[in-house]
Amino acid sequence: xxxxxxxxxxxxxxxxxxxxxxxxxxMLPRGEIIDPVIxxxxxxxxxxxxxxxxxxxxxxxxxxxxxxxxxxxxALNKYAKFIRGRVSFALKQMKYMPEFRFRLDTSxxxxxxxxxxxxxxxxxxxxxxxxxxED
Length: 135
Known about the structure:
The protein has about 140 residues and is α+β, with helices and mostly antiparallel strands. The chain is about 50% helix and about 20% strand.
């Protein structure tokens, strides 16, 4: 395997992604975006994934308490260029300001499904059976 083939993001992508996440997390609560959907929703930026060339930042968003999370994502994508301009000061060390894309973070839903499965009677029964065999 050559050094250019990687299974995951580089350290640089991870570091820049965290910087972008912090910049977004500081900018969004300030109320600079005049949109009723965004103003009435608490938005949590859970992760930012950077493209290998650092020109595209995909922000995974968890709208807390939103009735329609897809509307929040659509509003954030609508104002992506405005947001890009507002966070540019916090990311002035970057050669190119990344283009922002917002996606709904469904990882919490996946965790809840896995937790429910692990607590189901069928799985508990199977786990109890394995403990008996080991004794």
